[in-house]
Automatic annotation (TrEMBL):
Ca(2+) 2 binds at residues 245, 248, 253. Removal of H(2)O(2), oxidation of toxic reductants, biosynthesis and degradation of lignin, suberization, auxin catabolism, response to environmental stresses such as wounding, pathogen attack and oxidative stress. These functions might be dependent on each isozyme/isoform in each plant tissue. The gene is Prx2. Its main location: secreted. The lineage of its organism: Eukaryota, Viridiplantae, Streptophyta, Embryophyta, Tracheophyta. GO terms for cellular component: extracellular region; plant-type cell wall. The active site is at residue 69. The keyword Ion transport does not apply. PANTHER family: PEROXIDASE, PTHR31517. This is Peroxidase.
């Protein structure tokens, strides 16, 4: 850090309430980072997210899922968006990324920014702010988020499984993985509320249906799932899926918690969230209060969005989101 920066930090710490709080907040991110360099950046992203949502409602699901799949894997560095190269497999192509979609529309947003402020706004910030604005499209809360992230140059396919829980992971492992990012139990319960929108493909569900039906599934919900997933081995060419929340599939609301308490959670983790004694009290509280869900959700999304960002001179500002800039390509 430059001496000027250090003095600034010292003054900041001196005036702050506590040293730990001061240090925790100095991750290099700030509110409205592009205030001078591209004042219209946040408005452009918001407008593009709205336009895309009008044309393809499911883009909002993708923006919301992206923030988890990018930020939870080491850093919010848009490594998720990189395509495979001859030398490295992309995160997008791993099993954990199954079902991720709409990546080309991230490029639509990036292109709109490049037209106004070429080379200024990072894909990592686009990913985070599109999630924020996508959450609003889905009826969720508006969450003020900091910016100033820079883009990583390498995709991290090799470590994805270390950081992203599987669909059938134990709640202990899930709590540990999020805990490592500073996200506590109510925060984890709130984040899984994202499964109040979107879909789950049959390949992730058939193990609960065949050869026999998981007795933990609500018998009233089984016929619907069976109808959507009629084959023990789903045809890979047919897009077979079940909506995560049959009641309000397009709205980010607390109906997810009522569903999982009613044993209508699709994934094993969803089901266990409502049955583990550490998480169940929060599930019940969120099922009762949308305000409480939104409050915890906003807090947890903020923590997720600030996980270990690249700032200052680290990383780069990509020209397009699916590829690292040429002169920086690693040997
Ligand atoms: C224990 C953690 C989690 C696991 C194991 C998990 C797993 C999954 C799986 C298997 C799907 C279905 C994908 C498909 O078949 O297309 C899914 C969908 C989804 N997940 Fe998660 N997820 C987790 C946490 C999260 C978090 C923290 C968020 C966001 C904050 C999130 C957002 C979404 C969204 C929005 C969808 C629907 C995507 C779409 O319809 O395109 N998930 N998740
Ligand atoms: C979880 O599911 C995967 C397949 O998606 C399977 O390979 C793995 O053994 C399962 N793990 C547990 C703990 O059941």
């Amino acid at each position: 850090m430059a001496p000027k920066g250090l003095i600034f930090l010292a003054v900041l710490c001196f005036s702050a309430l506590s040293l730990s709080r001061c240090l925790a907040e100095d991750n290099g991110l700030v509110m409205n980072f592009y205030k001078e360099s591209c004042p219209q950046a946040e408005d452009i992203i918001k407008e593009q997210v709205k336009l895309l949502y009008k044309r393809h409602k499911n883009t909002a699901f993708s923006w919301l899922r992206n923030i988890f799949h990018d930020c939870a894997v080491q850093s919010c560095d848009a490594s998720l968006l990189l395509d495979s190269t001859r030398r490295s497999l992309s995160e997008k192509e791993t099993d954990r990324s199954f079902g991720l979609r709409n990546f080309r529309y991230i490029e639509t947003i990036k292109e709109a920014l490049e037209r106004e402020c070429p080379g200024v706004v990072s894909c990592a910030d686009i990913l985070v702010l599109s999630a924020r604005d996508g959450i609003v499209s889905l009826g969720g809360p508006h969450i003020p988020l900091k910016t100033g992230r820079r883009d990583g140059r390498r995709s991290r396919a090799d470590v994805v499984e270390q950081f992203l829980p599987d669909h059938n992971e134990s709640i202990s492992a899930v709590l540990d993985k999020f805990g490592a990012m500073g996200i506590d139990t109510p925060g984890v319960v709130a984040l899984l509320g994202a499964h109040s929108v979107g879909r789950t493909h049959c390949v992730k569900l058939v193990h609960r249906l065949y050869p026999e039906i998981d007795p933990a599934l609500n018998p009233d919900h089984v016929p619907h799932i069976l109808k959507k997933c009629p084959d023990a081995i789903p045809d890979p060419k047919a897009v077979q899926y079940v909506r995560n929340d049959r009641g309000t599939p397009m709205i980010l609301d607390n109906n997810y918690y009522r569903n999982i308490l009613d044993n209508k959670g699709l994934l094993i983790v969803d089901h266990q969230l409502a049955n583990d004694k550490r998480t169940k009290p929060y599930v019940k509280k969120m099922a009762k209060s949308q305000d409480y869900f939104f409050k915890e959700f906003s807090r947890a999304i903020t923590l997720l969005s600030e996980n270990n960002p690249l700032t200052g001179t680290k990383g780069e500002i990509r020209k397009q989101c699916n590829a690292a800039n040429k002169h920086h390509e690693e040997p």
